[in-house]
Write the structure tokens for this entry.
Amino acid sequence: MSRIFEKSSWGIVYRVNVFWNFEILLLERKNQKGKNIYVIPKWHIENEEKAKETALREISEETWLAIEYLEVIKFITKINFTFLATYLPWNPTINKDVYLFLVKYIWKDEPKIVEEDPEEKWEKFTWFKWFKIEELRWIDLKPDVYSYIKKNIQFM
């Protein structure tokens, strides 16, 4: 059985709306089983890139939000997990380190969903939505974004 080691950066993106309330950006996509799920922006750290740089780059690439309007407010935590990648032909075990950041978006434009690579169907985002913090309690998210926000609300 093969094992793959990966490093990723994930960003909890928030903005302050016109009513001075916090809103959290989630992206909607279909998982490997075809079910619609919500996720936060994330991807692999490339080459010698820093985790913070990856978080900003990936948020911008996945949402088309201009990177100059994104600001990393805080490094939240490093998460490690292992899973069986049944979506790959040889079913490797993936050991992943994830760097989680709190990122403020200075509101200029709404995110965009742009179709680019038809080969990555299961990673394709179909929609986005801004959620009030309390709404996150009822959404099945991994990691538990609601808990991380509650622990770091004083930094927002």
Observations:
- The mean pLDDT is 87.
- The CA atoms of residues 85 and 91 lie 5 Å apart.
- The domain at 3-155 is CATH 3.90.79.10 (Nucleoside Triphosphate Pyrophosphohydrolase).
- Residues 51-63 form the longest helix (13 residues).
